[in-house]
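call fold(seq) -> tokens
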Amino acid sequence: MCANVSSAPSIPAPATPTPATPAPGTGKSLTAGLVLAFLGSIAFSGKAIIVKLAYRHGVDAVTLIMYRMLFALPIFAAMAWWAGRGQPALTRKDWLGVLGLGFTGYYLGSFLDFAGLAYVSASLERLILYLNPTLVVLLGWLLYRRGIGWGQAAGMLLSYCGVVLVFGHEAHLQGANAAWGSLLVFLSAASYAIYLVYSGELVQRLGSLRLVGLATTVACLCCLAQFALLRPLSAAVVAPEVIWLSLLNATLCTAAPVLMVMMAVERIGAGVAAQTGMVGPLSTIVMGVWILDEPFTVWVAAGTVLVIAGIFVFTRMARQRR
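ret:
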């Protein structure tokens, strides 16, 4: 949940907008903020690696995400309670907004991401999710006719060319599976982009921590209900490795990075935190090669450079337009 804060969707990185972007800190605050943003981005990136490892034990996406959300539910429910202490009760409109955003941004985005990872490499998945800021801008153009500058368009073109390059290489190796998996992951990124576009008003009223806690709690309950509707109870019997990997995913790669990135934003500002998040795709590729034995080719390297360079240009141009 950097945007990927990268990072949603799994629970996409909580690139949740805040009511105001704090000014970057100085001294120890700046150092602590950079370290938190760096570690948070790497932790989010580990989600794809853990999911790929769990798939080796014969579990499917519905069961795997159920376990991840089961372990994450108490954490996010506690987060919502903590952030809501002393705050006004939610109105009916607030609850409808939380339910809609929780379903779209965190439940649907997470499930599509998990499903897509069954067909594509962790490296390609992370690069596709990293396109999230461009999808937010495209939605703003489609829904509100907000302009897109030439610099932003150039950055978008560069980043999408990078994804196409890596996808083309993977499609050559995997065939139709790569196309299907890439589509699922792209829809996951689009789902989280919808969450970001429509969450602004609720963030202003509830605060980012309370909204994330409530929306992810909704998503956890949706994933549990999905399992209950689609799978027999016997499907919950999985290899012990799946249980431990899901627990690790829910804590180290979901709840902990959400808090780390939010704390980083408080210290160094959203812009610097987002730039630090560029380590995400790189860390996913390194862990994919090291832990999953995924191939690292010149096509993957070139595509990654294009995506990161494109998003860098895109975000710089976006800030200049403000």
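The longest helix spans residues 27-55.
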